[in-house]
Every structure is written in C-alpha cells, then in structure tokens.
Write a structure and sequence with these properties.
This protein is of the alpha+beta class. It has 32 helices and 23 strands. The protein has four domains: 211 residues, Cytochrome Bc1 Complex, Chain A, domain 1, CATH 3.30.830; 197 residues, Metalloenzyme, LuxS/M16 peptidase-like (Cytochrome Bc1 Complex, Chain A, domain 1); 218 residues, Metalloenzyme, LuxS/M16 peptidase-like (Cytochrome Bc1 Complex, Chain A, domain 1, 2-Layer Sandwich); 184 residues, 2-Layer Sandwich (Cytochrome Bc1 Complex, Chain A, domain 1), CATH 3.30.830.
Length: 934
C-alpha cells in the first residue's frame, strides 16, 4: 500500500472497535455450518472458482496420538485402508471409479495422518448429480463403512512399509535423536505417525478394526463442502448420508496431550554421513497452552505478532545479502509448533557447513538486539504497509479465491478454532486496528518469546572427518551471551526511485488483435513486440514473461565455462546503483517481483504483480535491461549461497543417483560440468565476462517478445509500455535463433547399478530418449502413454504386488534446440524387489506396445485431461505459458483453443503407435542400491 494510502488509513476512526475488544470474531456469514444430533460438524460454502467443481473433505479429529501401544502406525494404516475397499466400492473400485471421472490418485485424491488428525481430500466435478452423489457416498464409506478384510489388510502392509522405507535416511536418523528432547516427556514423542516397523509387519487384524471403531465416529468428524454447488442441496446430502450414524455406547475419551515444561536447555548436535545440508534451529517453547483466537482482542494480538514477524524477518533477510552472510536463509516466528496445544518461538537458519555457530550467533544477536533496543518507527510503518497490502489483495480477490483455500481454513477452524471471518471483515478490521498498534506493544513481545527454560537448540549437518563439529559448550556460550556488545540496528534511508532517470518514451507503431485468443499484439518503435491478454480470472494478478532466442549456446564451450555458474548471480548486484537490500526496502508494501535469466537457448525475465503495482514491474524490467550494477562481490555472495545448498548434495543417495544418470546422458558434452560445481569450476568463472554476456543478451530489445496476462487496464498498460518498454535500447542486429550446439545424449541401451546409501531402499528409473522430428500429435500421444501407463503401474506394482508406495511414468517431446523425445518410469522400492518390479514395469509397458491401451484407461486419461484443461482455461498462468511456448516452439498459439478437440480425437492406435516407435531401443535402466548390496 502506498504511503498516502497508509496516511489515509490513520484517519480511520478506531474507537468503535477499541471500545469492545471482547466481542467475538464473527464466522464468515457465507459459510453454512451446523452440527448433527450425533455430533458431526459440517461447513458448506458456495464458491465458483474453479467452475463446476467441488472440494469435499472428511476431517477426523483423531491421529496417531489416539493409538494404543499395539497400534503404533495404525492411524496412518487406516487412512490407507480407506482407499482399498468400502461398502459401496469394494477392493480397488474406489480409485478406479474416481479415475473414470478425471480424479487422479495421489494428485487430486489424497489424505494425510498427523499426531492429532486424519484428513481425506476429494475434489470432484459438481455439474453432474450422479458424480456428486457418489462423492458423498465415498465420504460416508470412509467415515463408517470401510471393509477391513484380512486379505486386504495384509496386502496393504507392503505398501505402508514402502512408505515407511521412503522416510528412512539422514533426516530420519537425526530427527529420531533430537525429537525425544524436542518433545521432552510427552506422548507425542512416542506416537510418530509413521509408527513402528515391527507393529506394521505383525499387528493383528482386530487391532486395526479396534482403532477404526474407537475413533471413526460422528462426534470426532467434520464434513467440509466448498465449490460450485447449491448450499441447501449439499446440507441435505450431509444429513442424508451422516445423520443416521451413532457414536459408540462407551466412547473412549479423546484426550489432549501437553508438552511438559523443562528447566534445562537441551542441545542437540546431530550429524550424518548422508546429510546434504546444514541448519540451525532455536526453539523457545511457550510455558502455557496455546491461547485460542476468539475475540477481537485475540485478533489484535495476532496482528501485533504479524508485525513482529515481518520486522525480524526483514532484518534476517538483509543479512543474507551481505558479502559474508552468516546464513543463506533465516526466519523467525512465534506460532504453532510440533504439538497442537502449545506454541513456540523459533529461529531457523540454513547455513554453510562451517558456519553453524556463526549462524546461531547471528540469530541470537538479532533476537537480543530487538530485546535491548526494539524496532524503529520506520520499520513498523513499513511492516504495516506490507501487511495491509496483502490484506487488500486478499480482499480484492475475495470472489476469485480457489475453493481449496477455503476448505483448509474451515478445517483449521474445526480442529483448532482458528478464526474464519469474511475477507471484508478481515480487511476492514485490519485497516482499523493496525494504525493503533504502537511500537512499544510490538517491542514488548520479545520478552515473552525468549527465556532460559523450555529451550532447545538443534543443529544438523553432514558428518565429515575434516569438519569440526560444534560442541555443546560452544553452543551454550552463544545462547547465554549477554547483550553488552550489541549495537542498535541502523535503518537506512529508503530510496526515492528504482530508476536513476525517467526513460524517454517510445511509441506503439502497430496494434493487432486476435479475436479468437483475446490477445492484442503491439509492435513498438524500438522493434520489440508486446502481446497481452486481459482476463478477469484474478482481480489482483498480472503475470509477465519476456523472452528472446539465443542464450549461452551462442557462445563457445570455453566462454560457457567462464559464465555458466555466474548467470544467476548477476542480479545479486542490484540495479540503478541500488543494492539488493535497497530494492527490497523500496518495494516494501508493493506486490511485485521480476527475475532475469539467461538459459542455454534463451534469455528473458519473469515477473508478477498487481494492477496497482504494474508500473514498478515495468521499472524493474527497464532497470535490468539498461542499468544492472557491476559488482564482482555479487558472484561471491551467490557462490556462498549455492555452496551452502549444493556442496553436500551428493551425500544424499537419491541426488547422487540423479547425478550419475545425468553424467551417463551427458558423456562427451563439452558444456557439461556435473550437477554439483567443484571449487575448480567456481575458480574458472569470470564475473566480468558473465556481466558482459548478460549486457549483450539484453542489448537489443527488438529481439524480445513480451507477454502479459491478467487484469490489465488497457489504456494505462499501453501508456506504461510506451514509457518503459518502447524506450528500451535496440540495435539493427538480425533476430537471433536457437543454436543447436550439436551434442546428442549417449545411446547406451544399458543397465546401470548405482551403489549409494546405507538404508535398505532402492530407486529405479527406466528411460527411453533420443532424436525425433517434433510432431504435435505424437507429443500428445506420448504424454497420454505416460499417464495411461501410470494407471497400470499403480494397479499392478502397488495394488496387486504391494511393492511400491508411489510410481509414475511420463512422456514428452521437444522441438528446441533440436527434435527429441523422452519417456521415463520412476519408482522407489525395496532392494530385494528392484529387479522383479523393474521387470513388472517393463511388462506393463510392453502390453501397451503389443496390444495398445485399454479403452477404459484411454477414457480415464481423456476425462482427467479435459477437466484439467477446462480449469486451466480460467488460469492466467496457463495462458502465459501457452503463449510463450508457442513463441519458443514457433507454433500457432491458437492451438490452445483446440486442445479439447485434440484430446477427444486421440485414439488408442495413436498411443500404441508412439509406443512402438519410441519405446524400443535407447533404453537406460538405472537402479540405486544400498552400498552394502554391492
């Protein structure tokens, strides 16, 4: 929100609200809520985005905390069983039916189990009465009619154990060592949702049935319905499907569990040979239970905390842009923690492996600095602007918010009484409350947040012989430091402008309208082209993509070696003489971002903003084109950030596996330097060369096409185009084209076993790839082959063989920089099953090659694609991606309008033909196996 807007807000009378801070926060009146006689609660809201769709959710207020000692892991197991057979949908009929109406298993249809709750997600079409009725039948069956047969329970053990296996690794090993201290003497520490392996393998069938009967009951349930629906009809359905069920005569009490307080400070310094990154976490657990947000006073208290969080994190963000940052990412907040009943203040940082103590010092220093000196008035004013700008955006988007967002809010209201007022009430109340919040109120929070008891320090990172591990004594010395040497924060002056001088406007020389696409293409006086599409999908969204063919492939391998690591470092320097922190501070309260890039085959910028802040986006584009700062220190900042994330990535078995596959495909490529840069790679980078290449790539605006999609005021937009885009420098150089550097991936037709890791887990990747003349019909058929094969792989490898938790296949074709195709099958599994399951996957693929896809599977693919397409037609991102892809692929963007026709026209023979054509040779089978399996 602009400064003048904030000034006006200060004049809003607040006495009417201030007089009664004890008034309750009202529930959004557009939500219909009620409780059936049996205790089941429901929430219904009509919301037309997306159209013809409804999000159904079943919330069970019972999770792993409710398990008996012999049931550890069975709350989660029960979640699995609800997809494996119910009264109306025996065995796998549930997934089969939902796929037939376009609902994808895992992507749309899903569920989760936590300590406190189990939640089921079911998005379905709402424009068909039969499908709606089926949806409510599914919810009812999940709640009360699971068919827990011994054979289905035993078959699902393998799938759940595969999910258990997926969680194994460095993070799991380290967390199991620090969680007993984090969850000190609490029931939570004994009830991790994934459970215990021996129980999952050996529990008796009756033990699972007991959990279902005890905890799946009406008084612990909520049904949430949000979408393009008739509210009265949905309420009637809820009563029809759920009103007749009764609670057990002898209900087990649903207990609440606390997190006991402790006087001592626990220090957990955990390392692992497979850990791929380092972090530092400082927890100050609240001594009392979480305060519910019920009244206006509670709501005001939360806004004070929001202001604190915004200001402390603005300071931490500034540190990450220093020449020698103590951490690469830092964040602090007070709020929900590991348990539902208690909040905590947490400071967190991702750090280079050698700087954990430095990061800890910085986090503690910043907390103590706030405690000693507080924040400044300028910081508070900017924080208020920022919060109000996002509140205003939410208010303006109130009729364009996705149903999935509302469903999550009502779930939080049911489980934790988190308030759900209307967007109107929220915005107006924040406008009234925020001006009256004082600096002293915000500064007072820190004294309650940090204390010497209930404190836990956690450090995790790689274990190396040459890496000194911090000691507990060193950690305690840092956290017990006094504020004697702490200096006040210096709040620098906010820049007056993003640009050094006003551009000299150019002009629009040609205007072309495409009535079919609803786009306008402008040719500018400097030769650049701008295509925009005005939409009403979102009130507060404008997306931008600028692109030009060329990229680093235009340069020799020798030059590429000097620049490739630096191209994403250059924006660290800032622009217009402003440092990155100056830019961030100037943009406070404005919703806008722009990211320049130079890739292998193109260069450009991506951005997003709101209609109100569009001019700032244009200014950033202009500044990146014309006035990027020259600062070699930017490369060092970027290197430190990248190194912190990447130096130890190859210790992670899965990343090492991907690296090995990449190396096989890239063998002989003079432009390939591995997925993880070495010190030698960094040493070969020349900042000046990279800077000059960037400037050269953006020297000729005539070679660029700009695409904008969103809520565009056309008159204002074209004025801004004149001023900022038509004024960009241009040359008389010919338009560049994508260069094919000539390299082609190796065609090994081989099997590669990669040994890495100590856990009993494997991963399989089967790849077919090579050159191909791009054909749009074949590209669609290859994509369909991947989706259809995924259906068959889930049926066979997961449901029949119980050998995997997740599995997928995907196919694609590309035209740039040369015609190519790629088809992949990926899945994790147990080492003992890797060979067998690989063959099973290949068998399922071969069935399609030999016989073509089954008609029902092709129909499932089409239904899902059509649903997704109809939804995407009302999404700005879909149109931006479609328009830019058409430019990149040199194709007709009007094909976007013919996708439904193309999907319906796809035949089983076309899918079989691409399978026969491309799924033959050039096959790479790569299997990750643990080191002990060598």
């Amino acid at each position: 929100m602009k400064k003048i807007s904030l000034w006006l807000l200060l004049a809003v009378p607040v006495l009417s609200i201030a007089q009664d801070l004890n008034q309750p926060i009202p529930l959004d009146p557009s939500v219909r809520t009620g409780t059936l006689k049996n205790g089941l609660t429901y929430y219904i809201k009509k919301n037309a985005k997306p159209e013809n769709k409804v999000d159904l959710r079943l919330v069970v207020n019972a999770g792993s905390l409710m398990e008996d000692d012999d049931q550890q892991g069975l709350a989660h197991f029960m979640e699995h069983m609800n997809f494996n057979g119910t009264k109306r949908f025996p065995k796998n009929k549930l997934v089969d039916y939902l796929q037939s109406i376009g609902v994808k298993f895992g992507q749309h249809l899903n569920a989760y189990t936590s300590f406190d709750e189990t939640v089921y997600f079911l998005p379905i079409p709402s424009d068909d009465a039969e499908k709606l009725e089926k949806g409510f039948q599914i919810l009812e069956d999940w709640a009360f009619n699971a068919v827990l047969t011994p054979e289905e329970i035993d078959k699902e053990r393998g799938v759940v154990l595969e999910e258990y296996r997926l969680g194994l690794g460095a993070s799991d090993r380290m967390s199991k060592r620090f969680l007993p201290k984090m969850l000190y003497q609490s029931h939570y520490a004994e009830r991790l949702p994934i459970g215990k392996k021996d129980i999952l393998e050996n529990f008796k069938h009756e033990t699972l049935i007991r959990f279902y009967k005890d905890w799946y009951r009406p008084d612990l349930m909520a049904v949430i319905v949000v979408g393009d629906i008739d509210v009265d009809a949905m309420e009637k359905k809820i009563k029809t499907h759920f009103e007749s069920y009764k609670n057990p005569k002898k209900e087990r009490p649903r207990l609440k569990y606390d997190l006991p307080n402790h006087e001592e400070t626990f220090v957990c310094i955990e390392t692992d040979k497979e850990a791929s990154n380092s972090d530092v976490r400082v927890y100050y657990k609240d001594k009392g239970k979480e305060k519910p947000t019920v009244t206006l006073a509670d709501y005001r208290r939360n806004r004070i905390e929001d202001l604190y969080t915004t200001m402390i994190n603005n300071r931490l963000q500034e540190l990450t842009n220093d020449a020698n940052p103590p951490f690469m990412f830092g964040y602090s907040y007070h709020g929900g923690g590991w348990v539902r009943e208690k909040e905590q203040y947490q400071s967190f940082a991702i750090t280079p492996e050698t700087k954990q103590l430095d990061a800890l010092k910085a986090l503690i220093y910043e907390n103590l600095r706030v405690k000693k000196y507080g924040f400044g008035q300028g910081e508070l004013d900017r924080a208020k602007e920022e919060i109000l700008s996002y509140a205003e955006k939410a208010y303006n988007e109130r009729d364009k918010t996705e149903s999935s967002s509302f469903v999550g809010r009502y779930q939080s209201f049911y489980l934790e009484k988190y308030p759900v007022p209307s967007e109107e009430w929220s915005f107006e109340t924040q406008k009234a409350l925020l001006p009256g919040i004082t600096l002293s109120e915000v500064n007072a929070l820190i004294s309650g947040f940090i204390h010497n008891d209930n404190r836990v320090i956690v450090m995790t990172g790689p274990e190396k012989d040459d890496l000194k591990k911090p000691t507990e004594a060193e950690v305690l010395a840092v956290i017990n430091a006094t504020d004697a040497d702490i200096k006040p924060y210096v709040d620098t002056e906010v820049a007056k402008s993003l640009l050094k001088a006003e551009p000299k406007p150019g002009s629009i020389t040609k205007r072309e309208k495409n009535e079919k696409l609803g786009t306008v293409t402008l040719t500018l006086s400097n030769g650049a082209k701008v295509t925009y599409k005005k939409t009403d999908f979102k009130n507060e969204e404008i997306l931008m993509q600028a692109t030009s063919r060329g990229g680093t492939d235009l340069y020799s391998p020798e030059v590429y070696k000097k620049i490739y690591l630096a191209m994403y470092a250059l924006d660290e320097a800032g622009f217009s003489g402003l440092k990155k922190n100056d830019i961030t501070k100037f943009l406070n309260g404005k919703i806008v971002s722009v990211f320049p890039y130079v890739s292998d085959v193109s260069e450009g910028m991506q951005g997003n903003t709101t209609p109100k802040d569009l001019e700032y986006l244009m200014q950033m584009v202009y500044a990146y084109f014309t006035d990027l700062n020259y600062d070699p220190q930017a490369l060092e900042i970027h290197k430190q950030k990248q190194s912190a994330f990447m130096d130890n990535m190859l210790r992670d078995p899965n990343y090492f596996f991907m690296s090995e596959i990449s190396a096989i495909k890239s063998k002989g490529n003079p432009r390939y330097f591995g997925m993880i840069p070495t010190e030698k790679d960094w040493a070969g980078i020349d900042y000046k060369t990279a800077y000059n290449v960037f400037k050269e790539r953006f020297a000729n605006a005539a070679d660029f096409e700009f695409f904008f999609v969103g809520n565009i005021d056309e008159a204002k937009f074209e004025t801004l185009v004149d001023k900022y885009l038509a004024s960009l420098p241009a040359t008389n150089a010919a338009k560049e084209k994508v260069v094919d550097v000539g390299f082609r991936p190796a065609k090994p037709d081989l099997k590669k076993i990669v040994n890495k890791g100590t856990d009993p887990k494997s991963s399989v990747r089967i790849s077919y790839y090579g050159e191909a003349t791009y054909n749009e019909k074949e590209a669609r058929a290859l994509n369909a082959l991947g989706e259809i094969l995924t259906i068959k792989l889930i049926e066979q490898l997961r449901e029949t063989e119980s050998g995997v938790y997740g599995i997928s296949a995907s196919g694609s074709m590309s035209k740039v920089p040369y015609g190519s195709y790629n088809f992949d099958i990926r899945f994790p599994c147990g080492p003992e099953n890797a060979e067998k399951l690989t063959q099973s996957a290949l068998n399922e693929l071969q069935k399609i090659v030999t016989n073509g896809p089954e008609a029902k599977d092709l129909a499932k693919y089409k239904e899902a694609e059509l649903l997704e397409y109809k939804k995407n037609l009302k999404e700005n991102r879909f149109w931006l991606r479609g328009l830019t892809n058409a430019y990149s692929m040199e194709s007709n963007p009007e094909a976007l309008l013919k996708k439904e026709e193309a999907i319906n026209a796809l035949t089983a023979k076309e899918v079989q033909d691409v399978a026969k054509k491309y799924i033959t040779t050039n096959k790479l089978i790569a299997i990750l196996m643990p080191e002990e399996a060598k």
